[in-house]
Amino acid sequence: MIKAGIVGGAGYTAGELIRIILNHSQVELDFVYSTSNAGNKLYAVHADLLGDTEQDFTDTINKNVDVLFLCLGHGNSTSFLQNNTFSDSTKIIDLSNDFRLNADMVFEGKEFIYGLPEVRREEIKKANYIANPGCFATCIQFALLPLAKAKKLGNDIHINATTGATGAGVSPTSTSHFPWRDNNFSVYKPFTHQHLGEIGETLEGLQESKTGELFFIPNRGNFSRGIFASIYTKFDGTLEEAKEIFTRFYAEAPFVHVTDAPVNMKQVVNTNKCAISLIKHGDNLLIYSAIDNLLKGASGQAVQNMNLMFGFEETEGLHLKGSAF
């Protein structure tokens, strides 16, 4: 058994992470750090944990845990690691965007590997520090990675993707609270979303040359969780050839599923899966990709990375069941 610590324990991703770790056969939850909730039961914030644990939040840190998960707001992981030291043997998985760019970032002697298991499995196994990919970035990359590997992304790529309210975090904002979000739909950060950088780096690394330009329109949906992306680009080949490229690329990926049937978001919500389907229209290949933003887009992927880092079965603790209703 290894011991895990979580910093920033009150948010949505931390809640999912706690739930997974409590049911993981190889991991003991050592502490959940939250200064604002210290002394409160975990289930006082994460109500779904009622009956699963009597553990409290804490404002103290065990610097010798085997693995540390950082579930802090963007920009805060850097300052936390500057102010807190951990054992040389402690592996760190950061769920913010602090260390995702510039391929593999070195911060105060720590080399953070971009943790997308479907393309970097062997490097993750050897890594001590992981930059967990962003949720939009994960969903969109899964739709494009096989084409990049096949050197087929020479044309512009058009992306329209919608995320649920949990993607905005637990702190209410003018565009995330219920009266605004309910029965509403909106666009934000068109063409400039922060996940474009990590998407471009991964795709160009696989294709070994510059891809076509990424035109990304992110949307806010009036649902709680999940991401659904519709992506199209020119493709010089048949639909059958495209399917062969995708199924071959994901042959060893336990959570990515390419299907002939149309995908929908409820297939993947509350799971660590990504569902992908393809349509050929004239010269364009249309790719649908769907994930749960809190699991495959955050905490589930973080645990998948942890499993690889410690030599556990990659799927351990992640046989999470979704629902069609």
Automatic annotation (TrEMBL):
It is an enzyme of class 1 (oxidoreductase). SMART domains: Semialdhyde_dh (SM00859). SUPFAM superfamilies: Glyceraldehyde-3-phosphate dehydrogenase-like, C-terminal domain, NAD(P)-binding Rossmann-fold domains. The keyword Nuclease does not apply. Residues 3-127 form the Semialdehyde dehydrogenase NAD-binding domain. PROSITE patterns: ARGC (PS01224). Its EC number is 1.2.1.38. The active site is at residue 135. Pathway: Amino-acid biosynthesis; L-arginine biosynthesis; N(2)-acetyl-L-ornithine from L-glutamate: step 3/4. Catalyzes the NADPH-dependent reduction of N-acetyl-5-glutamyl phosphate to yield N-acetyl-L-glutamate 5-semialdehyde. PANTHER family: N-ACETYL-GAMMA-GLUTAMYL-PHOSPHATE REDUCTASE, CHLOROPLASTIC-RELATED, N-ACETYL-GAMMA-GLUTAMYL-PHOSPHATE REDUCTASE, CHLOROPLASTIC-RELATED-RELATED. This is N-acetyl-gamma-glutamyl-phosphate reductase. The gene is argC.
